TrEMBL record:
Originating organism: Paracoccus siganidrum
InterPro entries: LysR_HTH_N (IPR000847), LysR_subst-bd (IPR005119), WH-like_DNA-bd_sf (IPR036388), WH_DNA-bd_sf (IPR036390)
Listed name of the protein: LysR family transcriptional regulator
GO molecular function, one term: DNA-binding transcription factor activity
PROSITE patterns: HTH_LYSR
Keywords annotated in UniProt: DNA-binding, Transcription, Transcription regulation
Ranges of residues in domain HTH lysR-type: 5-62
Domain of life: Bacteria
Keyword Cell membrane recorded: no
Family to which the UniProt record says this protein belongs: Belongs to the LysR transcriptional regulatory family.
Length: 299
């Protein structure tokens, strides 16, 4: 009788699997342990198989339980997304719109979209943060923002939807007076002999990974402004978004690194995305901002 399955049973199954025990699962659901055990047992009876091996001190997922856990998560994700969408239809205008923007994305585009949104919803308060690397995704998963603008495909989560905006170019640059500026046909060994200015991830999402770090002599900073300032001052080299350094390149304060080890003409391109949680309501102000930003990126 698969039609007798309930969302409560499926949610309880996932809670026990995530927490590692019936007791901890009951605590996460604020329910009695006996009720959680009964819900999982009823689910097993309806499915006709065991989801957990209970022979040890703690319940362990059976191979069938492991396989069905992904389906259970997908069901809950879709149901939560449907509920959020339904709430959004009935909700009024948000009191506040919180946005976290990747450091690589031009804030001028964000500002223009916010101005457009406020023309229609002037009472909505705005909270804007700029974060590198995993910061925007972490803010979404922690529910600290309504929307995030992310660049690249390094960070993903099944609870988050992504809508492509526009490509963002990064260029490898160095100050005009830096020794690397006078080089020709530089290779990785040449770059490794000099300090590379690198952004640090404020989250643990990139733990154990380095993105584009070629030099063992790295100087890690916490903001794009700091990275830009150190490169301009001649401390080292690094990649910066093209929109940020166009004036510096035109004036000669910065020069592109003459190397093909960092992309053609020292330039690489990544796609930017507007991201939001599938299980959170999307109010009219957020929809207005998203539409304005998407339209400006297509222009």
């Amino acid at each position: 009788m698969l039609d007798a399955l309930t969302l409560d049973q499926i949610r309880t199954f996932v809670a026990v699997a995530d927490s590692g025990s019936f007791r901890a699962g009951a605590g996460s659901l604020s329910r009695a342990q006996s009720g959680v055990s009964v819900a999982v047992a009823n689910l097993e009876a309806q499915l006709g198989l065991l989801l957990f091996d209970r022979s040890g001190h703690r319940p362990v997922l059976t191979p069938q339980g492991e396989a069905l856990l992904a389906d259970a998560r997908d069901i809950l994700l879709r149901v939560d997304a449907m509920r959020a969408r339904a709430r959004g239809f009935g909700d009024g205008v948000e009191l506040r719109l919180s946005i976290v923007v990747d450091t690589l994305f031009p804030l001028s585009a964000v500002g223009a979209a916010l101005a457009g949104m406020r023309a229609h919803y002037p009472s909505v308060a705005i909270r804007l943060e700029v974060q590198p690397l995993g910061g925007p995704l972490q803010a979404l998963t922690d529910q600290r923002c309504t929307l995030a603008i992310m660049v690249g495909e390094d960070f993903r989560d099944p609870r988050i939807s992504f809508e492509a905006l526009s490509p963002v170019s990064q260029v490898a640059v160095v100050a005009a007076g830096h020794p690397l500026a006078a080089g020709r046909g530089l290779g990785v060994p040449d770059l490794a002999d000099h300090v590379q200015i690198v952004l640090s991830d404020p989250t643990a999402l990139s733990e154990g990974r380095d993105f584009g770090v070629l030099s063992p002599q790295s100087c890690r900073v916490t903001s794009q402004d700091a990275k830009h300032a150190l490169i301009l001052s001649g401390v080292g080299w690094g990649r910066l978004p093209l929109w940020l350094v166009e004036d510096d390149l035109s004036s000669g304060r910065l020069v592109r690194l003459p190397t093909t080890a960092l992309g053609r003409d020292g330039q690489v391109q990544a796609q930017s995305y507007l991201a939001r949680r599938l299980d959170q309501p999307f109010g009219p102000a957020a929809r207005s901002f998203a539409a304005a930003l998407t339209e400006s990126c297509r222009a």
